[in-house]
Design goal:
The structure is a homodimer. With about 230 residues, chain A is an alpha+beta fold. The first copy, chain A, contains 7 helices and 10 strands. Helices cover about 30% and strands about 30% of the residues of chain A. In chain A, the strands form 2 sheets. In chain A, strands 1, 2, 3, 4, 5, 6 and 7 form a 7-stranded mixed sheet that branches. Chain A has a 3-stranded antiparallel sheet with strand order 8-10-9. In chain A, a hairpin with a 2-residue loop joins strand 1 and strand 2. The longest helix of chain A is centred in the middle third of the chain and has 18 residues. The first copy, chain A, binds a DNA duplex (30 and 30 nucleotides) through helix 6.
Chain lengths: ~230, ~230
DNA sequence: AATTTTAAGTGTGAATCTAACACTTGCAAA
DNA sequence: TTTGCAAGTGTTAGATTCACACTTAAAATT
């Protein structure tokens, strides 16, 4: 055996899990996708979606795989949030968990809820108690979402490809839990020049109809490369 | 064997390491503490300080232990940065690494460099090439430091307990790689009302001497709890 | 004793950004 | 034709940011 293998082998190994905090936006509310845990310990209690990392996959791959196994969705915005490694965090054994946070666009919202694993969208306003340290993970994810939303145009990840100003504003209001002035909001968003206004209107929520917008990915990327700091 | 143990046992386990990006500030320059790796693979190449997590310790504890083993320092500011889990990131085997970033106060700076493990402070301006994905970790840590420094009074972690305005300004200039106006800088810092001005002066860098300040921990904590957003 | 040198310390005003505020428009339903 | 409802639109006062230059204290030099 080569010396490095020997050296490494002298150290313990651990089960490594990923747990995903999955946010969605629907009916003017920010929601979290959870389910009832299918195995011991704590079978039947509310839990984030998670699973164990396998030998042939990276952490990011594991997170994507588990999300897609449970929701059927692919190419979803995900980023690593934090790693949880307290010795006693899982009563059944030592498990190190890497938490991810994910944003599901409104268009895929109902799709994600259809999972066989009993996925349920719950309002962030009335979160149930989750197993182990999962509530702690959700709190951290929410802080991250607030920061990201203020700093990068991440909010668009939660909306359909085409959206109206009132929809976008409602999303920010749900994230920040506060009312915004619509004139100031529009001004600020439009000043960034990353939205493309379409000719079509969405009449689903008013007789007059609201113009649809699309997010200009290319323009945004250029701005970011040039050191732009998107701020709500 | 209880059912949950069986379930968990069906999954693979991994070596888990922590690697620390350790920043210091000296001679007006931001520096990184590294050393030459002591074991295979890549023995003798520049590396961050790291080590394997043990059975009886959390990730945070492992990070503190490894820092103290190598530098002799305790109670150092550390926070988790990101987890690295690419399958091939370590050529000698599958290792998942949790990166931490640490700030060593100026008073402990030389102490930290005295390690038997050949610790060396290198300027962030002329970083050597590090093993595996360590340069990537450093880049991420630097971005985090910039953000933190602009948002929380973390810069104080890199200075001695008593410091002068010119020192504090030099630190921020080193972090942001840009000159700041001293009148505006003073105004902004003092407006936060988290500094206590002392009667004593530090004459080490001028004939006139500069007043020493101390950071008011209690006052800052109250501000943070009340939702204050420290910004440079 | 007077002069020079060096870094520390101090205030103002123009420009920009932020935040508060109310009426008009378009369209469907009554 | 009138009514109701959400969408859409500008202005101004106040706050913040940014640029900018001289005075002061003390040691070192003449």
């Amino acid at each position: 055996m080569p010396p490095e293998k020997q050296y490494y082998q002298a150290h313990p190994t651990f089960h490594v899990a990923v747990d995903s905090i999955i946010f969605g936006f629907d009916q003017g509310e920010l929601k979290l996708l959870i389910h009832k845990r299918q195995f011991e310990p704590a079978r039947g209690e509310w839990s984030l979606f998670g699973g164990f990392v396998q030998q042939d996959e990276s952490l990011d791959e594991a997170a994507s795989r588990i999300l897609s196994e449970h929701t059927g969705l692919r190419d979803i915005y995900m980023e690593e949030l934090h790693s949880y490694g307290e010795v006693d965090r899982d009563p059944a054994g030592r498990v190190i968990s890497v938490a991810y946070f994910a944003l599901i666009p409104a268009g895929e919202f109902t799709e994600a809820g259809k999972s066989k694993s009993g996925a349920t969208w719950v309002s962030m306003e009335e979160l149930p108690s989750l197993i182990m340290d999962h509530n702690q993970m959700v709190e951290k994810a929410l802080r991250r979402l607030k920061r990201r939303a203020a700093t990068q145009p991440i909010g668009f990840e939660l909306l359909p490809g085409e959206f109206t100003m009132p929809q976008l504003q409602a999303l920010y209001e749900a994230i920040y839990q506060s009312k915004l002035d619509k004139r100031n909001f529009r001004k600020k968003i439009l000043a960034m020049e990353v939205l493309i206004k379409l000719d079509t209107k969405d009449k689903s929520s008013s007789k007059k109809g609201a113009y649809l917008y699309r997010f200009d990915q290319k323009k945004y990327k250029k701005l970011v490369e040039g050191g732009y700091n998107f701020t709500i």
